[in-house]
């Protein structure tokens, strides 16, 4: 089964981050979706944290090209997200699989990055949609 990734912040369509990271060609858009979490504004990027009382909206992408491409994509994403696979306790974000609900109601398992540091005074984004939030900010 191919790996799916869930993007809810600056890796979503509308930002240029995937292309600049050199992973755009290794990803195929699956559709919009949401995961159970709360979303916070850290200033220049958002932070999702698991929470039973919220939904975070984003996009699901499939990594294609096999294991070599998946490894390269995860290496690039881990660098962007400050995730250290060998030292997750000291990572800015941790990567884990979570259930994502797609627009058509299907549920899929996808990799997502969850914030792993103190939120401080970061305001919660009530809509759970970072793209909409930055459009009106």
What are its keywords?
137 residues, alpha+beta, Hypothetical upf0131 protein ytfp, 5-stranded antiparallel sheet, two-stranded antiparallel sheet, 3 helices, 19% helix, globular
Question: How would you describe the overall organization of this protein?
Answer:
With about 140 residues, the chain is α+β, with helices and mostly antiparallel strands. It has one domain (about 5-135): Gamma-glutamyl cyclotransferase-like (Hypothetical upf0131 protein ytfp). The chain has helices at about 15-20, 65-80, 130-135; strands spanning about 5, 25-35, 40, 45-50, 55-65, 95-100, 105-115. The strands form 2 sheets. It has a 5-stranded antiparallel beta sheet. The longest helix has 15 residues, at about 65-80. It is globular, with a radius of gyration of 14 Å. It starts with a strand and ends with a helix.
Task: Outline the secondary-structure elements.
Blueprint: E1 4-7, H1 17-20, E2 27-36, E3 38-41, E4 46-49, E5 55-63, H2 67-81, E6 93-102, E7 107-115, H3 130-136
Antiparallel strand pairs: 1-5, 2-5, 2-6, 3-4, 6-7
């Amino acid at each position: 089964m191919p790996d799916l990734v869930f993007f809810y912040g600056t890796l979503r369509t509308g930002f240029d981050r995937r292309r600049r990271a050199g992973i755009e060609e290794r990803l195929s858009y699956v559709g919009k979706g949401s995961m159970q979490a709360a979303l916070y504004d850290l200033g220049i990027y958002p932070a999702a944290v698991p929470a039973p009382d919220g939904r975070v909206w984003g996009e699901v992408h499939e990594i294609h090209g096999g294991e070599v491409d998946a490894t390269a994509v995860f290496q690039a994403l881990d660098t962007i997200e400050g995730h250290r696979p060998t030292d997750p306790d000291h990572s800015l974000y941790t990567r884990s699989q979570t259930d994502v609900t797609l627009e058509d109601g299907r549920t899929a398992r996808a990799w997502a990055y969850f914030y792993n540091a103190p939120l401080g005074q970061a305001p919660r984004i009530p809509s759970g949609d970072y793209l909409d939030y930055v459009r009106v900010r």
